[in-house]
Amino acid sequence: MGELIVAQAGKRAIRFGICQRCLSTDVRTFTCHHGSCAYCRNCLYLGRVCRCDFLQERDITTPLETTELTMPFELAPDQTRVANQLLTWWDGQKTGLVHAVCGAGKTEMTFPVIERVVNAGKRVLIVSPRKDVAIEWVERLERAFTVPVTRRYGGGEKDSVGMITVATAPLLMNVRDVFDYVLVDESDAFPFAFDIALWNTIRRVGRGVFLFITATPTVWQQMFPTVHLSRRYHGFDLPVPTLVKQSDERIVDFCRRHALKPRLLYVPTKPDLERYREMLEGAGLACRTVSAETEERTDALHWLQETKGVVLATSIWERGMTVRDVQVGVLESEHRLFSTRGLIQMAGRAGRKPEAPTGEVCFFYRERTFRQDVAIRKIKEANRR
Q1: Residue 124 DSSP SS3
Q2: What are the helix and strand counts (H, E) for the chain?
Q3: Quick check: 75 and 66 in contact, CB under 8 A?
Q4: CB atoms < 10 A from the CB of 372, how many?
Q5: What is the DSSP secondary-structure string of 22-88?
Q6: In the chain, which end has fewer C-beta atoms inside a 10 angstrom radius, N or C?
């Protein structure tokens, strides 16, 4: 139980062509002091391990602590129902799925079960798909709980495990059997959706009790016991997207129609960012761009909120961001990179705050697709529940 480290003795780091740290078969050859030797490329960012290295487990857990919980707000009746179900699952040591619409207040609903787990002397892990989502979890947890929150993501601490740990999955590859309760946020998101190695990592760090949270679960996640939450905590319906035949004039008209509000426009690929930026700036609109390579995405978030400007973003911002009164447009919504789940998540950025519970969502299209229609139908079905 603990963290796998390179040591003088122990088990071989690579056996039968498989890395014993991350279970990858992505091994190559290079010349080390023992001669030709295989090493793992999949977990190279954790430090190189080769066939002539040994791995040992080191205990990196901090002393057990109890905590007090200060809820940031009173849970709505539906949120309380979900929170009670999570407590029941924990008491029965069952894995489950929270299928809650975007903006339902999923984070706060987990706080009562986190408190119970920690005060039972057990450790909690929250796994996030991206660093910026992990940072948001840490901020909320630190306001609600009295125990320190350990960060295992880029820029955080990577040499210890506390009572509550927030991490991105890649930085858990060398951790084994430490956490009694593993909460996977946005469990259908990239990179979870495409990387079996990350799911193996998440399975190995836990001890059997998992909770998956998402607004758009995959088919296999829906096989677990499920609790539904189809209303946002402020009680208003989800904004239903409208389909608009795309043209530069209609995109500009959308931006000008909401000139006093933040506007978020999604584009399929990074090259599209500059193309549409030139078009919008040519129409006299101030805008910024956000992609996976944007280091300070929080700066763009604050700029959007404060200036009521226009931000062009790739799907990196389809989750984990909230801007009050934002108006959303999806450009080229027929693009193959925009899945049904992605379109639902993008539409879910609008109307999240109780002081601005509505908003316009436009799916701009050059051609109609099944994915657009399914996304709109699922949003309407959630509003009818």
Answers
A1: strand
A2: 10, 21
A3: no
A4: 20
A5: T----EEEEEETTEEEEEESTTGGG---BTT-EEEEE--BPPP----B--SSPPPHHHHHHHHHHHH
A6: C
Token pair, residue 195, equals 């990387």
385 residues of the chain, pLDDT tens digit each: 677 888 888 888 888 888 888 888 878 777 676 667 888 888 888 888 888 888 988 888 889 999 999 988 888 888 899 999 999 999 999 999 998 888 878 888 999 999 999 999 999 999 988 887 888 899 999 999 999 999 988 766 677 888 999 998 888 888 888 899 999 988 776 666 666 777 778 888 888 789 998 888 877 778 889 998 888 877 788 899 999 999 999 999 999 999 999 999 999 999 999 999 999 999 999 899 988 777 777 788 888 888 899 999 998 887 777 888 999 999 999 999 998 989 999 999 998 888 888 899 999 999 999 999 999 999 998 888 7
User: Would you state the structure tokens that stand for residue 130, as one six-digit string?
Assistant: 């991206």
Is pTM beyond 0.85? Reply is no
Euclidean distance between CA atoms 371 and 213, whole angstroms: 22
C-beta separation of 146 from 131 below 8 A = no
